[in-house]
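Lab notes, practical 5.
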Amino acid sequence: MTPDTAPCIAVRDLTVRIGGEVILDGASFSAPKGAMTMLLGDSAAGTATAIKAIAGLERLQAGTIEVEARDVTKVKAGRRNVAVVFESHALFPHMTVFENVAYPLRVAKLDRAAIEVRVTEVARLLGFAHVLDSLPRDVSEGLKRRAGLARAVVREPAVYLFDRALSSLDDDFRGAAREVIAFLRERFNASIIMPTNDGAEAMRLADWLVVMADGHVLQEGASAELRAHPATLDIASRVCVPALVLRDGGIVAIEPEGVRVQVVDGPSFLLPVVVGDLEIGERVTLAAMPAGFKPGGWASVPPEALLLFDSSGTAMSRRQP
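Output from the prediction step:
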């Protein structure tokens, strides 16, 4: 299924402080409808806090959150039409596994037949249909976790929020989560948001990528677009997998077609970038994906495969054809 261009989630100028520490500092980003959106950043980036804020589980100091164009900033967590998928979901001990999974559907007042179909379908997908009539105390820990996952995803909210990256989950739960994600996307064209600190995971799974650091959003966009056009060298180091090959260089000429860059101990390239305030002699950094290299090293890399960054690490824009 392909993502829609309309945002499912719109976060604007979000600020969250916890214990006097600023965790999110004016963060703004969107998540397209029907997309797998991943928030990429380390433990200090604020990705997990952003997930909790969207769910209504974190108090905001400033900013707004919209779910399908509805302002939910002051709406209670249970009324935002989002589902949070935690790694650990405690089951009600006095209810059967079926009743546990069906609970959010009963709250939503679905009819009995629809509940039966939905619960059975997700239970078969996750491999615990044979214990639906059992109480949680009579079920293995692994199956209880799968039932908890099923309860989180059995209804159809506007967006599913995963509180942890797949790469951080144990093998059994990671496999179950992947099965559920594939099911949700194929069956319902679901919108999903998930944090990760793994650039490889982000580039493999994400349709839409939000790169974060220190509570700020550095860049967002389609994952392929970010990989092809990172705004800075720092962002490139986070989203380009395998890592870019870098080489220092300098501008040796400004020509009508762009700038000519001389690689240190290497060839020169004429690159069609916007000249702006660039001057001859300015130091730059060239970057290329490892796959772009053939026998002959830098001389074998086609100019169109190169990224160019100025001395501050900011990407230099290519001219529009």
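Observations recorded by the TA: The first strand starts at residue 7 and ends at 18. The chain has two domains: 7-228, 242-309.
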